Structure formats: C-alpha cells, structure tokens
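# nightly structure sweep
# worker-07 picked up a monomer target from the shared queue
# config: single-sequence mode, recycle default, output format = structure tokens
# input follows
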Amino acid sequence: MSLDVLTFLFVGASFVLYIGIAIWARAGSTKEFYVAGGGVPPIANGMATAADWMSAASFISLAGLVSFIGRDGSAYLMGWTGGYVLLALLLAPYLRKFGKFTVPDFIGDRYYSQTARVIAVVCTIVISFTYVAGQMRGVGIVFSRYLHVDINTGVIIGMAIVFFYAVLGGMKGITYTQVAQYCVLILAFTVPAFFLSAQITGHFLPQIGLGATLDSGMSVLATLDQLSIDLGFHQYTEGKKSTIDLFFLTVALMCGTAGLPHVIVRFFTVPRVKDARISAGYALIFIALLYTAVPGVAGFGRVNLIQTINGADGTGTAYAEMPAWFKNWENTGLLAWQDRNGDGKVQYSAGKAFDAGKGKPKFTEERGEHGERLTSNAITSADPAVAAGNKPFANEVYVDRDIMVLANPDIAQLPNWVIALVAAGAVAAALSTAAGLLLVISTAISHDLMKKTINPDISDKQELMYARLAAIVAICIAGYFGINPPGFVAQVVALAFGLACASVFPAIIMGIFWTRHNSQGAIAGMLVGLVTTMCYMYYFAFGGGTPDQYFMGISPGGFGTVGAILHLIVGFVVSSMTQEPPQEIQDIVADLRIPRGAGEAHDH
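# output follows
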C-alpha cells in the first residue's frame, strides 16, 4: 500500500477516534467542562497528563533540537523531565487538597485578592498562547508533508479538529481523547526508534544506542563528534552554551514545567488527593518511555542525515541521485539546497545556506539546471564572500530542525506503515497539548474572569457558554500564531516555560510553603517576574538584541530563572513589610501540608 494511502488511513482513523470520543464524553456541566467531573481513574489521568505534557515540542522538535545542538539539548531533557518531578512532589498534592482547579482560582483565593486573580489570568493567557503557537505550527508541519498541503492550510485543518473535541467535550472529552492520543504518540515515537536502533547499532533499544559501537569501530557519540568537526560544526558532546546559561535554561524549563496551568489542572480531574499522587507516578512512567529514547533518536537521525546527504566519501551526492525523501521535504519549504560551486552535488556543512532573516529558504516557481528548487534568497557563487572562500558560506543545504523526527523514517527507508504511524503520532502530540492549552485559556476567561471577577451572578449554563465562546476565539488566535510563528517549535515553547517560571511558579510555591506571604507580595512579585522576563525575551528574540548583550551571558530562554529570582525577592520583601494575611488564610495554608488523617503533632 502506498505511503499516501497509509497516511490518510492512519491520520483519518485517529481523527474519527478523537471526534467520536469527544461526542461520547460531551461535557454537560461546568464541572465536566473544567475538570471532567473529577472522576477520572488515576491510570487514565496519568496517560492523559503525559499526552497533555508531551507536546509537539517533545514529539517533533526535541529530538531535532538535540540532534542539531548536541550537549546543549540536555537542558531541555533535564528541565522538562525534572520539572515534572518537581510538580508531582511539591505542587500537585497541595493544590489538589486546596480544591481550586485553576491557577488563577488558587492565587485569587490564597491571596484573597481579585487583583491577584486578574494578574494570574493575564499570566495564564500569555503563557498558554505562547505555548500553543508551537503546537499549531507542529500540526501545520505534519500536514504540509503528509497531506500535501501548505503549512498554513495544515494549521487550519488542525484548528477544525481541535474545535470539535475541545469546544464540544471540554475537559471530559479532552481527557479521554488524550488517553487515545498517548497510545498513538508513544507507539509512533518508539516503533521507529526501535527500527533505527536495530538498523544502526544492531540492537533495538534506543535508550542505550549512543554508546553502541558502529561498524567503523567508533561509538555513535564519537562518530557524531568526528562528523561535526569534519563539517565545521561545534563538537557534538561539548556544545556552545556557557555553563551558567545552560544551568539557568535548565532551571527555567524545570520551574516552568511545574508552573504550566494546563498540566496543573490535570490533578483536579481525579477523585482524591491520593489519586493525584498515583496519577503523577503513572504519568512519570509514561513520559519516561519517550524521553529516554530521545537522545538515541537524535543521534541516529543526525548520523543518517549527514551520511545520506554527503555520501559515503563525504564529498556530496548528485542532486539527481538524492533519495525521494529529500525532494519530498524540499517541497514543504522546510529543506532546501542551492548549488554554489556548480558541481551538481548536494553538500551539507556548517554555515548559512540562505541569506534572509533567519536563513529560511524562499522558493520561486523556477527550477535549476539540475532540477533543484530555486530560491530568491540564495547565496550564490557570485557572492564576493563565497568567491573569497569564506568558510561560513560553504554550506549548500538548509534543514529545518523541526523535520528531524518526521524525516528519520524516510531517511532510514523504514516501511511505509512506520512513516504513516509517525505522522499520526505527531498530529496526536500537537493536538493533545493544543486542546489542553485552549481549555485553560477558556477556563481562565469564563471562570476566573467572568464568574469570579466581572459577573458572579451568571448561571452555570451561561458560564459554560462563555467557556465555549472563549475556546472558539482562542482557537482562532492560536491558528494565527501557528501561521505566523515567532520561531521554531521548541524555541517558542521554551519562551512559554520561561514566562511560567518567572510569574506563576514562585507565586504557587510561596503560597503553599510560606504562610506569611500576602496579597501585596504576590501581586508585586508576579508583575516584576512577568514584565522583566517578557521585556528581556522580546528585546532579544524580536527587538534586535544580540547575544553579546545578554545579561551574564543568559539567553532569553534561560532568563525566566532570573525573573523567578526577582519575583521571590520582591515578594519576600513586600510581604515582610506589609500586613500579615488574615488568620483563616494562614490556617488554610498550614493545613495544606498536613496529610489527611494525620492529625496534629503532640508532645509525649
């Protein structure tokens, strides 16, 4: 059966399944819309949490990121997995016991302030929209390759699918849809990983693949180091980031993970506090199945990519002899080649391939003498810098980082059904997180803004209507960001984590573990953390700032840690200088940390 037929079959069947579950689990009340009625079994909630958390950034972009930047990619692996441990141990049980199912609800009640609640709503919306942009972009990338449509059309198709099961089913529909999506995405990631590992190393476990010895007698890591050096890239096992930048990025991703509103709300969908802990344990197991395979998949993909493009002798491959996968991805605009020296060979090395903005190709309707897709922004052999032999202009190939996981099965010539399965898994990963984020946005607007702040007298039915309307508007805005993304998927997502780290996470931590923290301290801390981090990120990501201007060498993705430190300092100082919280609030906070049934401590 052809790849196109299998892809339509796999992706189409998954869509039918998701929409069918949404119809079956349609929310009939606000409790079902917000927290699935609070009756989801722990193992199902663990799978749904894993699917909600493992987004397009995890499935599509993470392995590509590690594949291209090597050691520096460890920050994403350590930050995202470590952050979930932090969430499971320090936040989830206490928030579940507090009984408020949204982050703004917790902050509004814990800090007895409508102003704090509104600021938390703003933080939640900013974080969620920044995060969801990457998910919709991921959907567009998958559809552009496998459904043969442009990326923008792919984003619109994804919007339509999310509309059905997020707006119709709410959290109840999303939860059971995410259980199905987890099954699809974990199979779609691990099955090709087993194939790749067996093909390259001779054994099928990708988790230990980087240390495996190849036919050359070198390990996968040693081979990657040598290939990187030969082609002018930075050594794979060393990386380019400074230690402080790597540390701050890891902490920002870790604390940002623990502060993500769409993951926190997952612990309110189970019946009891005990179930929240159990479902967190299940989720860690389900997440580990994918994350432990990422380094191997990244390494195998990088070796395959370089050796396939540059040929066995390393001098390049004639364009006419390039395999079908190269030209298929070329048609999506996410991979391109421009012949600079006129030898008709595709040659991949370090350096800038195209001269426009971030170096992405801009295709024309013409074809070159070798049949290649021509671009309007090529750096040609006529360029004085190329003629002078400057090394940065030696590269002829542009490869988008976000295609690596999707292209891996193509490059390795795996069976068509494996490639189709990867397409279905990538869509599942992007849609599962997008739905969770959109629900958080709609909940923040309908419950925390409309019901709790603007008009407390609205009925349950009216609140549900506002939630669905907010979800529709959010889907449209998310689609816009998917069509006009500020960067590649993992980069966009990293910014969202930085914002969560600086704004939401410190407020929750201090709210749980410091009874003296009051509304004034929380408000001041959230504002300082959010504003400083947003300004820093905007300046360096979009405002013209250059890396040599970084504060202490810290990149925008890692500045969330600085924002969190400022938040904690300002919150502590302001709270210490102002009135204590009401006694009933202090009693509630103290009770949060006492397990149910433990009673009070007594001297004997």
